[in-house]
């Protein structure tokens, strides 16, 4: 279980630069080791911050990337609520990741069947034995402390028998979603959170200083657990941080 390291930046632009630096290194290491780089990403503001510098990075071999979504809304992939659409517009349209190596939800299925089908896609890349171990999972955090589609007080927080779970009662619309579960998220070699804005400060204080239980605070990693936050999000947080950039 990795101890969290927090990198504080003055702006989201600085976070984008740090993510670009981190991913350049992790991608090269993973491709050298296994000839592929496996990554899962979330939606919200994350794709835009992630892509700002990364989309023009010509040193990365994007053809070796295999991209999943840490959670996804069960909507058509061209729908405005689709995390894939957000990532496509900000990043995928600018880098040469083969489309067949970007793994999307099947929106014609019910939410529970969509979760089962997404599990099969994971098995094609990671194999059926053991729990998938992503090289990197990139996560956001809501003001309520949720991450992926794992919400405070929801039964999915306790799921350990599935790689991908589904819900049809998301507190945030749209209600039908699929999400990676903690066994998969916490088995990643590196997990990197991105949290920006003063609206995140209270929950970060509760997670790091008061040790209160929130979905984001339950996330660990095999090797590296990193938080990239801006100064407004760290307002009032006393947890020991590293304020330099990667």
From TrEMBL:
GO terms for biological process: carbohydrate metabolic process; pentose-phosphate shunt. Its EC number is 3.1.1.31. GO terms for molecular function: 6-phosphogluconolactonase activity. Keywords: Hydrolase. InterPro entries: 6-phosphogluconolactonase_DevB (IPR005900), 6PGL (IPR039104), Glc/Gal-6P_isomerase (IPR006148), NagB/RpiA_transferase-like (IPR037171). SUPFAM superfamilies: NagB/RpiA/CoA transferase-like (SSF100950). It is an enzyme of class 3 (hydrolase). PANTHER family: 6-PHOSPHOGLUCONOLACTONASE. This is 6-phosphogluconolactonase.
